[in-house]
Amino acid sequence: MIFHKDKLLRFAHCDLAGIGFYPRYVELINEVVEDWCAQGLGVSYRELHETHGLGLPAVRLEIDYLAPSRCGDVLNFALAVERIGRSSMTLDVRARADGSERLRARLTVVLASLKDLRARPIEGDWRARFARYLPAPESSVEAGTVSA
Amino acid sequence: MIFHKDKLLRFAHCDLAGIGFYPRYVELINEVVEDWCAQGLGVSYRELHETHGLGLPAVRLEIDYLAPSRCGDVLNFALAVERIGRSSMTLDVRARADGSERLRARLTVVLASLKDLRARPIEGDWRARFARYLPAPESSVEAGTVSA
Amino acid sequence: MIFHKDKLLRFAHCDLAGIGFYPRYVELINEVVEDWCAQGLGVSYRELHETHGLGLPAVRLEIDYLAPSRCGDVLNFALAVERIGRSSMTLDVRARADGSERLRARLTVVLASLKDLRARPIEGDWRARFARYLPAPESSVEAGTVSA
Amino acid sequence: MIFHKDKLLRFAHCDLAGIGFYPRYVELINEVVEDWCAQGLGVSYRELHETHGLGLPAVRLEIDYLAPSRCGDVLNFALAVERIGRSSMTLDVRARADGSERLRARLTVVLASLKDLRARPIEGDWRARFARYLPAPESSVEAGTVSA
Q1: What pLDDT digit, counting tens, does each position of D2-39 carry?
Q2: Overall pTM > 0.80
Q3: Which residues on chain D are in Cβ contact (under 8 Å) with B49?
Q4: Within its chain, how far is the Cα of A106 from the centroid?
Q5: How far apart are CA D85 and CA D76, in angstroms?
Q6: Got the DSSP string for B35-61?
Q7: C-chain residues within 8 Å CB-CB of A70?
Q8: Whole-angstrom distance, CA of residue D74 vs CA of residue B88
Q9: I need a surface site. Which of A45, A72, A89, A137 has the fewest CB within 10 A?
Q10: Cα dihedral D37, D43, D47, D52 sign
């Protein structure tokens, strides 16, 4: 499964050349991850924090800014899970607009306790939830053997 | 040469777990690049834009978030040029605090016209300026042959 | 007429106490104004900038932060036009969540040329559009006599 | 006493018209308040949070954007305490650049517990510290009688 979300490239995201400023895309990517949790996985960030005491801090981010976008462009984001490790997972996040790919990112986050910031194994229900967004059944099996 | 700059991890950079929120570090990295231009290269962003009509849009960013930092930590940033291509260059940006490395990033930017967003060859004076921050003389020669 | 828009208070908006950080609400207010232009007035910011060469820079902002909001709260924003002057107008922006008012803001913006940043009189079509969000017919007449 | 602090108006603060974007100034004001605590009062935000369990959430903000500033302008901020109430205080924050006033703000913050977000009376040492930035001795006495 792939999670899709549209995001407007707003005035606040753009620099004096009138195009999206590169740090702002990281905020948009973060919004998409937040929306995916709530709408794709059925666990809002608030629930993740307050009910489960967990967060998803980033350990690695890679972004290719493939083409500039202008204020007013609607970016069609697509999020999939590329890999689930012992306590981390890598998300594949891409954005397209008007038929061209604008951005390709890989974000590795860790399931961690908000209290001590320690990583927690991704198990049971959590693993099952995240795994639904792995690209294909066989990859899911393979990814399960990769450690964080 | 290496450009060094201290940045306070501010309240505004931190999330509800009390640690630096990963998109905010991208803003800090951008500040360090801006300071490097003005203080390291002697060309402020304003001069770059207004006098030369140029900008440095990002085409690729990689960040490893090695360890969390807390509100009030002073991050010691170190910036070097890893590679200069025909019209792009890759910056190596690292941050340490209290003796541990917190962040390691590679940012590839393009020298581009603000008008048409087209890449411009990094030549003459510009190349000489950027090259002073390449790690060592022999690397400089090699890097010069890499195309953007 | 009143323009209504829901905004999620995101993780990125919250500070280490877990509540909305006051500068972030200004960004949310700006989003609501941007949405109002596109969805309420039928003129997107892009159209405003590119077709008309105009922008809406702020000249005054007042915000009362009436009650804290937490990550995950959905803020129901309501925007109305309080006053239209010669070239400026004051917007009344309020946010409620879970039955309580959280925020009350007044934002005065100027219709200005993007080229020279000079104020432009709010006339004809523009005035008619904005005036639809004035609170009541008699106020509209009064407001029309107030100068920027 | 008045606390002075210079802030560069950075690329990241500017919009597509090349001038400071109004929500970014609120972030700059917040930086100035944070710097004032650490450098003016001798209590960093970290100390305020971790040692004292206190924060300074905003309850009201007023900003007059008097003149636009461009990328590269150095804003000379001046912060004074206008009024100290029972548990709140109003800060007067102004910014000048190149001989003209650019911004005038009044920010009312509350001394509050980070745990329960409840206001705490500004007493003893805290009151003495803040009061050093009141405009004049007689105002200090008056302000002391104003309740939050």
Answers
A1: 999 999 999 999 999 999 999 999 999 999 999 999 99
A2: yes
A3: 18, 71
A4: 8
A5: 27
A6: HIIIIIIS--HHHHHHTT-EE--EEEE
A7: 46
A8: 29
A9: A137
A10: negative
